[in-house]
Amino acid sequence: MADTIPGGSAGSAREAQAAVYWMGGDPRWQPASTEGPLTRTVHADVCIVGGGFSGLWAAYWIKRLAPDAKVVLLEREFCGSGASGRNGGWVNGWEDSIGTLVSRFGAESAKWLLEASIAGTDAMRAVVAEGGIDCDLAFEGALIAALSYAQLDGLRGLPVAAEAIGRGDLIRELSAEEAQEACGSPRAVGGLLLTKAGSVQPALFVQGLRRLAVEAGVLVYEASPMTTLRRSHPAVVETPAGSVVADQVVLTCGPWLAGLRELRRTLFIIPSHVVASAPAAEALDGLGWRHGRPFADSRTSVHYGQRTGDDRLVFGRGGGRLGYAGRIIPSHFHDPAEITGIVADLHKLLPATSGLPIEWAWGGPVERTQHGSPWVGSLGSHGNVHYGTGYSGNGVCPTQLIGRTLASMALGLDDEYASSPLVSAPPSCLPPEPARSLGARAVRAAINRCEEQADKGLQPDRVSRLVSRGLDFSMPKMPKGLRLPGTSCCERRAD
Ligand SMILES: Cc1cc2nc3c(=O)[nH]c(=O)nc-3n(C[C@H](O)[C@H](O)[C@H](O)COP(=O)(O)OP(=O)(O)OC[C@H]3O[C@@H](n4cnc5c(N)ncnc54)[C@H](O)[C@@H]3O)c2cc1C
């Protein structure tokens, strides 16, 4: 059975180098000399589709576990052209979602998932050291600041949940003074320090993972979008000028996976946008920002940032136009209104930055799920097409775990990764359009109202509070055993 994923030219090398500081502004990032595009038929044990962190980690682990496996990686534009090369560079596991993990999976599985996600930071350290990847990876703990008493209330449960699971060491509570000193915002009323977290220059990390993949013998074809997927055995992945015939396929196309009919109702696509200032070491010293200790507040449309290795302020915000029916639209890569809003938020949050020149501004699409965490599944009746998606804005470190899990599945291993709670059918089902977009718009407006009121120290009104909860679970979870229309098999098969 064939299916297509629409491509589109957003995220091209030219766009990325003109807009994204990590690529256009850091001389250490260089466009790679490439094998691609694919212009013939090749045979492979595993064909990976998508050259972001997920696909490159999957390639890394497959070659570590089975060095002789023939692995081909296809990428629509160039490796890192999606979210992996354009994110905020926060590096953390799931220590900020312990409560959600426990309520979804139970304490025992939550503990496994927490430890496995944190192990991603060690894997990043190891691969950076072994591979000599120059990407400013640094771990000084990450700051989550509460900028209102409502945000502070929302954070109180986290240290308790960490303590309850035996990892109280992962989260330290900060007083108002400590939080203000760490982020420079007079509005901070408290906060948390995620002690094992840090930051990275993401595009350089992708560049390094890509190099390691090529050195390990992976054939990387860029400018080679999958146009058609035949869910046969072997599976066939077609590109405009060639094809890959593969025993196993691993789909790591990030938000673009919403274009697959099986996943159309599981992901909603919204952008996140980022700005980068001119180098400003003195101003950042004054604010208390340290390289390796990224910043976030705790709004739903989260503000986040870091001090780069060359002393720029990188600052971003999640949110923007929803892609109708899971589509990726040009404004996900650049929305002038979002960028204006982010700069205004920055000046409000950190008045001392109002004179800082903003030199770079860009965006990128993020796939979100109702439950806020990724999962790994399989498609087709042959059980040989696997995918991992749904990071919901926290993927820099968790992609390691998903890539490791996909490697186990593609190699048919019967190990703790292949049998982890991350491997499942799509965990939820969104309403069809246009209900989804209309509902999401109403929920987002209510969240914005609640957050604006909370910022002013006011109690959010009842209607907004009620509607804002729709973000989490306005849509019914898919009953067990129910398949999405057009899905022939969502369960993983051993053969
Ligand atoms: C602006 C922004 C800021 C963010 N900040 C953070 C942060 O600070 N910390 C954090 O943890 N997470 C952050 N995230 C999320 C994080 O970047 C992602 O979760 C992570 O990079 C996902 O990696 P991926 O490999 O799954 O997807 P992607 O990096 O999106 O890679 C998917 C790749 O698949 C390719 N592709 C798509 N369709 C096809 C096709 N048909 N054929 C071939 N290839 C295809 C794409 O071109 C792309 O390169 C942010 C995201 C954005 C956009």
Describe the structure.
It is a single chain. With 495 residues, the protein is of the alpha+beta class. It folds into 3 domains: 2-87 and 202-267 and 375-410, FAD/NAD(P)-binding domain; 137-201 and 269-367, D-Amino Acid Oxidase, Chain A, domain 2 (2-Layer Sandwich); 435-473. It has helices at 13-19, 21-25, 53-65, 98-105, 107-131, 149-155, 157-164, 176-183, 202-215, 281-287, 336-349, 398-410, 435-455, 462-468, 470-473; strands spanning 2-3, 41-49, 71-74, 90-91, 142-146, 171-174, 190-194, 198-199, 219-221, 228-230, 235-238, 243-251, 268-277, 295-296, 303-307, 313-318, 358-368, 375-379, 385-389. Strands 1, 2, 3, 9, 10, 11, 12, 18 and 19 form a 9-stranded mixed sheet that branches. An 8-stranded mixed sheet has the order 6-7-5-14-15-16-13-17, sandwiched between helices. It has a two-stranded antiparallel ribbon with strand order 4-8. The protein is globular and about 60 Å long. The chain starts with a strand and ends in a 22-residue tail after the last helix. 52% of the residues are buried. Mean pLDDT is 90; it is low at 473-495. Bound molecules: flavin-adenine dinucleotide. Flavin-adenine dinucleotide is lined by residues 5, 7, 11, 49-55, 74-77, 81-84, 86-90, 225-226, 252-254, 256, 272, 274, 304, 316, 363-364, 366, 391, 393-397, 399.
- For the record, the count of structural domains works out to 3
CATH class of the largest domain: Alpha Beta
**Low-confidence runs of at least 5 consecutive residues:** 473-495
The counted number of beta strands is 19
